[in-house]
Amino acid sequence: MFEELIQKLQKFDTVGVFSHIRPDGDCIGAQVAACLWLEKNGINAIGFNDDNVPLNLQWLAEFYPIQEPNEKALNKCDAFLVLDGNSPKRFGSYSDYIQDYPKPSFMVDHHPDPHDGFDLSISVEEASSTCELIFHLFLQNDVSQVDEKVAKALYTGILTDTGSLQYDSVTPETMNIASELLRLGEFRPNEVAEKVFSTKSLNQLHLLSKAMSTIELFEDNQIAIMYVTKEMLEETNTTNDDCEGFVAYPLSVAGIKAAILFKALGDGVKMSLRSKSNDVDVNKWARKVGGGGHKKASGAWHPGPLEKAIEDLVEIGAEQLVSVDKS
Amino acid sequence: MFEELIQKLQKFDTVGVFSHIRPDGDCIGAQVAACLWLEKNGINAIGFNDDNVPLNLQWLAEFYPIQEPNEKALNKCDAFLVLDGNSPKRFGSYSDYIQDYPKPSFMVDHHPDPHDGFDLSISVEEASSTCELIFHLFLQNDVSQVDEKVAKALYTGILTDTGSLQYDSVTPETMNIASELLRLGEFRPNEVAEKVFSTKSLNQLHLLSKAMSTIELFEDNQIAIMYVTKEMLEETNTTNDDCEGFVAYPLSVAGIKAAILFKALGDGVKMSLRSKSNDVDVNKWARKVGGGGHKKASGAWHPGPLEKAIEDLVEIGAEQLVSVDKS
Q1: How far is A130 from chain B (nearest CA, A)?
Q2: What positions does the domain DHHA1 occupy (chains A, B) (predicted)?
Q3: Which residue segments constitute the domains of chain A, with CATH numbers given?
Q4: Counting beta carbons within 10 angstroms of the beta carbon of residue B104, is it exposed (0 to 12), middle (13 to 18) or buried (19 or more)?
Q5: Which residue among B179, B194, B213 places its CB closest to the CB of A175?
Q6: What pLDDT digit, counting tens, does each position of B56-112 carry?
Q7: Strand B258-266 versus strand B223-229 pairing type
Q8: Distance from CA of B211 to the nearest CA of A (A)
Q9: Considering CB atoms only, which of B190, B206, B276 is closest to A166?
């Protein structure tokens, strides 16, 4: 799968590696591992992201630095590798630069409906994570290059993009890769999981406590919603980043098919949609309001106010549930 | 590892299989899988437990029935196999019967300090779960007997006893077994995880919301505590069973070494102790008040009241933290 990409990458002196804006465990893990792969194979790598690395992932950025892009640094690069996003706009302020500049750009990703403007794309929607794909970059070339840093970076992405190895994207192969990463990196899962998940502040848990009290069910208990407001953040001295992972709570209600987290934090309402039914495609649902993502996990934005966003999204969901029932 | 046990079991017509009282995913998963193994190998099996199977595990009891023990049913058995507990008292009202009766009794377990009164014991403290051990029963004999039911039962125990494959008890081998179970059983992790974890009621989430607002830190932010009171249960129309897994929340606070969940539900205070530091052994800690378990996960009981239980347990924890600092 990676043979052609490896051949192409080996021709360059310096490759700029982008992870997507508003970064998460999978894009940072893939970026750090890809940069280490390049360095191990004699190619300079520069990691770029417009946004700061989230607090719970900063230990990964110690394995390989990630900097804000600027023209001077980008000019040093002979090619670009973009990870865990399939359209240039996912890569922030220099997306035009990546798209229009005559330097080659390559993509590795697992999201649906990839943009086709890259010189080479490895796009595998079935993969649990971009980190699972990047493991194959090592496997294809020299798996002994998977050291502790690479292994922990890749494990982070697999862990965070699969809800701790619980999603239906996890195949026996994903689990074998997780096993190999533990073996090659000589670590135990808690060493990564505690860094990634057990880094909550008291304030964040108090925010979660408030958010959980808002969970409500709609459409004959098929849709669960939860919301977070700007006031809740102020009361608990927290920020938007503290809401990471909150959507798992409405999703955990027995018997529901889909859940939505609404975040009314000032600029309209941001929404995270999740499905736990093969019948409910939240990608379609999110696209109706200009968002998108995966069948089981998507994002969208609504101008607000909160009550209107909830009403509209539940209504769209209700239509989809009806069409499921009729089919 | 299982050769001798298999030879012994094959001599009997009927084997009574016990899971421990107040059953969890690991003991029920192991029990169901062991009963299926016996049946597949021409031996009658009867599953026993004093207590009801928890709601989120009742789908497993459809794979193989588990009944309350009584003399008549016990008399049918030629031998007993006790699972996921290492002392007869863990198996409830008929523990004397198992212990004193001249019928052979066998144990498979992964808890420390096993009782030595069994005719044969397979006690592997390093194993992630009893289900991981029971997989070896199949591996030793005929791994093709791992069908969907067996695979899902064993996967349940591995999942629930490792905090969703996150604990330091998870080795590359554990992860390989998880992969094999997904392959042999032809399922994806969400099919088990959603049954086991995503079966919360609105009331339970509202109880969790209340409990999370009680999280406090002690001893220079090294110990986190959380509590649940009888009043909270009444206000949210919930029961003790709804507190399952709550201890993960105080444990998720960044930088702490140990967490305790206190449940003041009437008959004194029940406590779940968890460590996420190699330096802090909560088994030692729990033993000081007559409880016990594993280094990283133990249980205990205090006569109360709640405030006194918190004071005493934090004080014992503080002593242990001091002795760690001195060592």
Answers
A1: 19
A2: 223-315
A3: 3-197 (3.90.1640.10), 203-326 (3.10.310.30)
A4: middle
A5: B179
A6: 899 999 999 999 999 999 999 999 999 999 888 899 998 888 877 789 999 999 998
A7: parallel
A8: 8
A9: B190
In contact, A236 and A207? CB cutoff 8 Å:
yes
In the structure, what pLDDT confidence band is assigned to residue A323 with cuts at 50, 70 and 90?
A: low
- What is the C-alpha separation between B88 and B187, in angstroms, rounded? 35
- Closest chain B C-alpha to A46 CA, distance in angstroms: 30
Write a three-state SS string for chain B.
Answer: CCHHHHHHHCCCCEEEEEECCCCCHHHHHHHHHHHHHHHHCCCEEEEECCCCCCHHHHHHHCCCCEECCCHHHHHCCCEEEEECCCCHHHHHHHHHHHHHCCCCEEEEECCCCCCCCCCEEEECCCCCCHHHHHHHHHHHHCHHHCCHHHHHHHHHHHHHHCCCCCCCCCCHHHHHHHHHHHHHHCCCHHHHHHHHHCCECHHHHHHHHHHHCCCEEECCCCEEEEEEEHHHHHHHCCCHHHHCCCCHHHHCECCCCEEEEEEEEECEEEEEEEECCCCCCHHHHHHCCCCEECCCEEEEEECCCHHHHHHHHHHHHHHHHHHHHHC
Six token digits for residue B232: 């909270």
Confidence category of residue B14, pLDDT binned at 50, 70, 90: very high
8 Å CB contact between B256 and B279: no
Report the range of poorest mean pLDDT among A12-26, A154-168, A187-201, B174-188.
Answer: A187-201
Is a pLDDT exceeding 60 seen at residue A266? yes
ipTM above 0.90, yes or no: no
Please confirm whether the linkage preceding A305 is cis (ω < 30° from 0): yes
Chain A residues touching B200 at Cβ < 8 A: 252-254
pLDDT digits (tens, 9 = 90+) for B280-296: 999 999 999 999 888 88
Best probe of the A interface among B201, B252, B256, by most A CBs < 10 A, is B252
* Closest by CA position to A153, among listed A137, A168, A140, A173: A137
| Nearest chain A CA: its distance from B95 CA (Å) | 35
Given A200, A212, A215, which is nearest B254 (Cβ)?
A: A200
Q: What is the pLDDT of residues A40-51, one digit of tens each?
A: 999 999 999 999
pLDDT value at residue B325: 55
Q: For A207-233, what is each residue's pLDDT tens digit? A: 999 999 999 999 999 999 999 999 999
Q: Is A276 on the interface with B (CB under 8 A)?
A: yes
Contacts of A179 in chain B (CB under 8 A): 172-173, 175-176, 179
Q: Are strands B223-229 and B216-218 parallel, antiparallel or unpaired?
A: antiparallel
List of chain A residues whose C-beta atoms are within 8 Å of the C-beta of residue B162 = 189
Indicate the pLDDT class of residue A199, thresholds 50, 70 and 90.
Answer: confident
Chain A contacts of B158, Cβ < 8 Å? none
**b/e A22-42 (16+ beta carbons within 10 angstroms → b):** ebbbbbbbbbbbbbbbbebee
Residue A168 contacts B where some CB pair is shorter than 8 Å:
yes
pLDDT of residue A325: 55
Indicate if the pLDDT at residue A172 is higher than 70.
yes
CB-based contact, A172 to chain B, within 8 Å:
yes
Closest approach of chain B CAs to the CA of A137, in angstroms? 21
Q: Does B191 touch chain A (CB under 8 A)?
A: yes
